[in-house]
Amino acid sequence: MWYWGFKMLNEENLGGKAYLETKGQALSVDCHFHVQKSVLAMKSIWAEQARKNNTRIETVFDKNVPNVLPINAMKFQHCLNNLAANAVNSTIDGLVRVIVSRLDKPHPKYGTQSYLLISVQDTGPGISAGDMASLFVRKSDTATQNGVTYGVVDTGLPMTQSLITEMGGKILVKSEIGKGSTFSLVLPLANSSFENESVSIGSRFYDMNILVVDDYNLNHLTLKALLQDNVVKIFTASHGYEALEILHSCPIDLIFMDIHMPIMDGIETTLKIRESSQDWSGVHIVAMTADPDYQHMHLCKKIGIDAALAKPFRIGAVYAILEDFAPAYKIATTG
Asked: Which of 37, 163, 202, 241 is disulfide-compatible with 67, CB 3.0–4.6 A?
């Protein structure tokens, strides 16, 4: 019964397009969904409400699901959280189980098409056939008083369906009165090298301290999310002066340096680092910029920059830089 959703994945209901075209395109910074972390975070959020309902929450993970997926994390998290909320709130003295799986099916063009399937199952009261037909219809219960209409619009499941459809996926439902319900989010995995990257990078560890220098906090958060499980520690600075203070007090192996910053920009900061008599004057520096001129290495090298990382970030490019500059990785791969 756990994997009933697999039977529903036929050619008709898997007609959605792949959620990401990766041919030469860079991933935007909000398009990284950390599968296991996000599911466990959702479980933690609803644990207290489940306890009040005397209900257990269980999670099951297929080991073949990539660790990181190139999808809009905010939209997908909203969908998953809504399904979990409905399941927990409707289940008393029961069980809510979240199953994360991967399904591979034959495809006439790609040979094999892979799908991410996250099913939220509950042992709640179930949904009648009549109610099932209107689950994804926007409803409003309104009342009129003194000529003014008051009401609350239900945006739960309709919004979830809208978001998952925007991402190229589907939401599937199965329910039986007295036995519970299962809602499944289905997304086609893009046929690209990214999927293979996601599987392999999650298990690598780079013995490095990283410094991210950028005045845009979202870039701090993005690189932290990508690297925090793969390096020793990540430090952040908003401009060059903060970066120099960190270098004076902490050992740093690699700097991701934004070029355009207030107070002290990346060029001036790099020059001060290279001109310093300190041990860290030779630290590896990678320029982060959307300006294509800085992606030409002969320009970067003139100011002492070792490499360049284009914005928006591509996960594969970030990890390629770590592999280039991590001594432990080089020893492991050449020894």
From this structure: 202
